[in-house]
Structure formats: C-alpha cells, structure tokens
Prior knowledge:
By secondary structure, the protein is of the alpha/beta class. It has a single domain (7-458), classed as Glycosidases (TIM Barrel, Alpha-Beta Barrel). 38% of the residues lie in helices and 14% in strands. It is built from 14 helices and 14 strands. It has helices spanning 14-17, 58-72, 83-86, 97-112, 128-134, 141-156, 186-189, 191-215, 237-259, 264-272, 281-287, 338-352, 381-399, 448-458; strands spanning 7-11, 76-80, 116-122, 163-167, 220-227, 230-232, 293-298, 302-304, 356-360, 370-372, 375-377, 404-410, 430-432, 444-446. The strands form four sheets. Strands 1-2-3-4-5-7-9-12 form an eight-stranded parallel beta barrel, surrounded by four helices. The protein has a two-stranded parallel sheet with strand order 6-8. Helix 6 (141-156) runs parallel beside helix 8, helix 8 crosses helix 11 and helix 12 packs parallel to helix 13 (381-399). Residues 13, 16, 168-169, 297, 360, 364, 410, 417-420, 425 line the site of 6-O-phosphono-beta-D-glucopyranose. It holds the Pfam family Glyco_hydro_1. This is Glycoside hydrolase family 1 protein. The active site is at residue 360. InterPro entries: GH, GH_1_N_CS, Glyco_hydro_1, Glyco_hydro_1_AS.
Amino acid sequence: MFPQNFLWGGATAANQIEGAYNVDGKGLSIQDVMPDGLQTPPTEGPTDDNLKLEAIDFYHRYAEDIALFGEMGFKTFRFSIAWSRIFPRGDEDEPNEEGLRFYDRVLDELEKYGIEPLVTLSHYETPLAIAREYGGWSNREVINFFEKYCRTVFERYKGRVHYWLTFNEINSVLHFPFFGGLEGTPEEVGPQKLYQAVHHELVGSARVTKIAHEIDPNNKVGCMIIAVPRYPLTPNPQDALKALDKSHDDLAFGDIHCRGYYPGYYLRKLKNLGVELDITEQDRDDLTNTVDFVSFSYYMSVCETADPAKDTAGQGNIVGGVPNPTLVASEWGWQIDPVGLRIIMNEYWDRWQKPLFIVENGLGAKDKLVDGPEGPTVEDDYRIDYLNQHLVQVGEAVEDGVEVLGYTTWGCIDLVSASTAQMSKRYGFIYVDRDDDGSGTLDRYKKKSFDWYKEVIATNGESLTK
Length: 466
Ligand code: BG6
C-alpha cells in the first residue's frame, strides 16, 4: 500500500518546542510577543504569560526527545530553524555561531538514529526587528535578509539536510498578516500592502529554491500550504462558485510555486482589489525557480456558501468557511474529515504532478495522564482513531496513483499551540508535563499512541485498521 522508503515521522516548529528564547545570542521573533497566539494582538515585548518563551525546552532536551523519536522508528523529523537564532535581528552581516551550533547538535542526534531531517526555513518566526523596524515582508529588502539567512544554513548543513520547506503555510499570511511581520488585521493592513508582502515572500521562496539547488543539487525544496477542501454548502451553482473562488485563494500559492508565474484568476483578483504589484523583471525571473515537491498541512475541510445569511465565517480556525452538517468537530471546532485528505491529495496531484508530502496532520485534544503498568501514560484512543482514519485515506490516495513522499504528524511531542498558545491542546505521542499556567516538571511520558505509531511505521502501514 505505502511506497518503500515512505518517510514516516513527526513535525514541530522551533517556537513551539525550543524555548530558550533569549539564550546563546538568539534574538526576539514575532512569537515572543504573541502570548495568546492569534487570540489577541501582539504585545510590545516578551511577557511572562507567554508559554513559548520556555515551551517544552527542546533546546536543552533535544537528545532525550530525538531518542524517543528514534525508538518509534521515525524515518524523518520535521523541525524549523529559528531565523532569529541565526540572525538575531535579521539584518546582520554575520550569523550567530551559537545558533548554528545548536542545529549541528540536533543533526548529530538525528544521524544517530538514521532520521532524515525535514527543515522548515520560516515557520511563523520572522525576527521581531524585521517586523517592527522594517515593516515585515511588505519591505522588499527582507527578501535579501531571507536569502542571506537561507544561504547560510544551506552552506552550513550541506549534505546533512536534503529536504527543505520555505514558508510554513505560506497562504496563512492573508488571514494573519503578523506571520509575515505586518501589524494589524488584513483589513487594517489593506490589500495593496498585504499582497505586496505575499509577492515578496513568493519571490523569496523561489529565489532560495534556486540557491538551494545551486549549493547542493541533491537538495529537494518544497512549498508548504494549508490544504482545505472547500465544499459547496448546497448544490446551488453560486455556492460552487464561491467554493472555487475561495479554493483559488489557497491554490494560487501552489500554482505559483509549481508553475513559476501568476495564474489569470489571481491577477483578476488583484485587479478587483485595486492592487498594483511592484514586480520587477528580476522577480519574474526568480519566480520561474519552481519547487521539487508540494507539502501541506491538513486538519479540516469547510463548506462555502454564497448566502450571506448562512455565512458564519471563522469557526475556530483561520481558514474561514462554514460548518459541514455531515461532520463532527474537534474540541476546538476543527471539523474532522479523513476523506477530505484523499480528495485534496488527488486534486493537488492532478493539478501539479509534483510529489506530495503531508507535513502536518493530527488531533489537538485534552489529554489526561493516568497510571499505567509502566508509569504515567495517556489512553489516547481518540488520537489513534483520528490518525488511523487519515492514514487509511492516504493509502487510498496512493492507490489512486498519487505520488507521496511521506507523512509527518503534527506535534509528535506535545508543544505549545500556534493559534491559542495553550499546552492543553495536545497532539503528541509523547506527553509533556506542562500546563497552561506554565507549571509542570517538563517530564516526558509515552502515550498509548506511541506504541501504535511505532507499529504503523514498522509495518509500513500494514497495521492500519480499515
Ligand atoms: C498549523 C501550524 O497551522 O497548525 C502549526 O503550521 C500549528 O504551527 C498547527 O501548531 C496546529 O494548530 P494549533 O493552533 O492547534 O497549534
């Protein structure tokens, strides 16, 4: 069912696991001023209630954590490099050696267990100085800062990292501009500035794709987008058109990364919004450096309606849409749809004919630590069920002929949530003793799903229950 060499593993992001936010020369990133995730506007500076400042202290416990990933049989581990560890402000000439050394150590551990690194270059972690002093990605100069940072890590980790992702969920900046270092809501920022920032990110992504290939022809670079099947709420063609229009907002990012130019529907949208992009000849040339594969996160599907009376956008997520009456939702209102994963995989493959990599999928749930025969554990059958159902659909997509490189569950070890900045929204196979108020020992415990996933990997998916 699953291809040989399928890259099974787990995924994380620096700001959600590392902690050590001001250690060994690290500069502040936008996450250090987002104590409530997306729930409230960013603060002036770091505040004590921000769980990400310490997170799960992966910075000091990486060896123990990677040993557990090794024990599960991970073939790959997705993590991000914190840009502000390497260039604390983003605009320096020289990198911070201590920051580079940390990732050397992480790579050493991964090599011990034969785990292939999958590295995100920018996972909602723009250095704060770039946001506050340069206007974030709305400033063209930031492309050069990003290029310098990427060149530095491509050269440093040459031959040790082969899979790179440029921007995590690059389409999310349209919903939450501060991810790109722009202060304010999309309405406050306004379409002209927002889409210019998006353009700069797209050029940056393409430019570093080219550089990655030049530095090491064995490098494989992927874009990373939020995948959301958008179904029409009713058979009314107006609902179908709305679903198409909203899907285009996501698909544009894949189209540009895979084709190397802006699609017509996107240009029309910009025109309707009154946006006039500053695009140079160099930009157009850069954009032609297309990706090797398409990676995406998948958590939910939504419905779209053209009827304003039924449009209750924003059901606990940043992707909009309205609830699907046939589906149930997680405790955080994310609607669970395993078949939607098969559908979107087919759609992406049909459209782009590039290998896919599912780099995030999982269930955020409240876990209860209980006594087990070998010590504290969590009986997380709900998580096993969720992952099993989704993986069965990945298998179906493989049977449909979709080429898939691998699958990494989100938050393979409990981490701080991105949207709500909570510890209690847990995704892991490994429980971390830390609570929303910051208390806890940070000790790690294996959940029931730990052994389950280990078996799935060992059998290359044969142990999944259809
Ligand atoms: C994705 C992000 O949006 O979803 C992750 O890439 C994030 O950083 C994940 O953690 C799950 O979202 P949340 O809000 O439950 O942490």
